[in-house]
Amino acid sequence: MIRTFQDGGPILFVIFAVSGASWFLIAWKFVALAVDKGVERRASGVVFASLIDESVETTRSLCLRHRCLSFCAIAAYLDVRSTSRDVDRSLKEQLVERESAGLRCHIDLIAASAGMMMLLGLLGTVVGIMITFRGLTLSSSAAMECMMANGISQALITTEAGLIAAIPALAAHSLLVARIRRRVASAERALARAEAILAKEEQVV
Q1: For 13-49, how does the pLDDT look when each residue is reduced to its tens digit (9 = 90+)?
Q2: Any residues with CB less than 8 A from the CB of 142 and at least 6 apart, and which?
Q3: Which residues, 6+ apart, have CB-to-CB distance to 103 below 8 Å?
Q4: How far out from the chain centre does Cα 167 lie?
């Protein structure tokens, strides 16, 4: 393992560092999405029951206490609705978009780091080829063979490392984007449900 890092050269260490940072972000995002989903699942009954039986302010406090995308969107909707009952669809979409910014944060950075790792692998290939050609200029056959072997080794190792690090990161990025879309869709459904409950309560009154 140590020999592999030595043969890969300094570029391999950079790929390893970028990969570690990207996987830290990936793990953080997966945990954040799981927590958001769990909070909504646990407190959904309490929040919607409060919306039916309690005051709007009580429901808003509950939403802010059980913080997740759906409940933050409902709390923001209740704030807007308190000043104007005419809340159109585009405004509700803007509320969900604004509240989902935290879940979307750093998602593009994961994709960018995956692209960076592939480019670093390509850079390592170019550097390795340059070392190989430099070895051809040496007069000593033993030194030439050693430098050529080192150059080819660095070219192959960095290319392989860049692809091995980037492909799973891209797959994780796609999976995270899909899960964020599901959380946004769930928030939109919760917001529509809250709106329907409030409209029904107003009709009863």
Answers
A1: 888 899 999 999 999 999 999 999 999 999 888 888 8
A2: none
A3: 29, 32, 33, 36, 69, 180, 183
A4: 15
Q: Where are the alpha helices (DSSP H) in 54-140?
A: 56-65, 69-83, 89-99, 101-104, 107-136
Distance CA 21, CA 14 (A): 11
**CA–CA gap between residue 107 and residue 192 (Å, rounded):** 27
Are residues 151 and 138 in contact, defined by beta-carbon separation less than 8 angstroms?
Answer: no
14: Cβ contacts below 8 Å, ≥ 6 apart: 120
Q: What is the rounded distance in angstroms from the CA atom of residue 193 to the CA atom of residue 201?
A: 12
Residue type, 145: E
How high is the pLDDT of residue 7?
Answer: 59
Question: Quick one: residue 188, left, alpha or beta (phi over 0 = left, psi -120 to 50 = alpha)?
Answer: alpha
Mean pLDDT across the stretch 105-115?
91
Taking the C-alpha atoms of residue 172 and residue 127, their distance in angstroms, rounded to an integer, is 29
For 50, residues 6+ apart whose C-beta sits below 8 A from its C-beta are 58, 59, 62
The per-residue b/e assignment along 74-84, b for 16 or more CB within 10 angstroms, e otherwise, is bbbbbeebeee
